[in-house]
Each structure stands twice: as structure tokens, then as C-alpha cells.
């Protein structure tokens, strides 16, 4: 691709605070919380459900305690309103 990494090794998110935070939430809210995984298919299906819930229902403090999808919809509708609310 021609891009050089600035920090960290290929494939890890440890130098990216946002990705690290998301991975931590995923492990805490899904993987560790359930803990009764029978196989990788169970994990994959639960992960898809968690991602959908995370984006459409979970409240996020950075955007006024509304779901990310609602925040994004508002942003695309009127960027000026979103900037004023932040």
C-alpha cells in the first residue's frame, strides 16, 4: 500500500486509544460478561449483535448520550447543528 506505520506493530491496536477503548468495552460488555462460549460461531453471532446494539441503541456520552447512529444521522442532516451541540 505504500504507507508506513508510525507506531506499533502490524495488526495491533495498542497505539490507538480509540480502538483500544472499543476493544476493552467489547471484551467487558460481551466476551467476559457472557463467558459461556461453546464455539467460534457463537462468538461471531454475538459479536454481530453487539456491534448492532453498540451503534444503534447504546448511549454514548461523547455525543450527548444518544446512540451513535442517531448522532451520525443528525450530523449528515445538518452539520452546523451537530457542531453547535458539541
TrEMBL record:
Output the Pfam families linked to this UniProt entry. Answer: rve_3 (PF13683)
User: What is the superkingdom listed in this entry's lineage?
Assistant: Bacteria
Which parts of the sequence belong to the Integrase catalytic domain?
A: 1-75
Q: Which GO terms describe its biological process?
A: DNA integration
Q: What is this protein called?
A: Integrase-like protein
Amino acid at each position: 500500500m505504500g504507507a508506513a506505520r508510525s507506531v506499533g506493530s502490524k495488526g495491533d491496536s495498542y497505539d490507538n486509544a480509540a480502538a483500544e477503548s472499543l476493544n476493552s468495552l467489547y471484551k467487558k460488555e460481551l466476551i467476559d460478561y457472557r463467558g459461556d462460549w461453546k464455539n467460534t460461531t457463537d462468538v461471531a453471532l454475538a459479536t454481530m449483535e453487539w456491534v448492532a446494539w453498540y451503534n444503534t441503541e447504546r448511549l454514548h456520552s461523547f455525543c450527548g448520550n444518544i446512540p451513535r447512529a442517531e448522532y451520525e444521522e443528525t450530523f449528515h442532516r445538518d452539520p452546523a447543528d451537530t457542531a453547535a451541540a458539541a
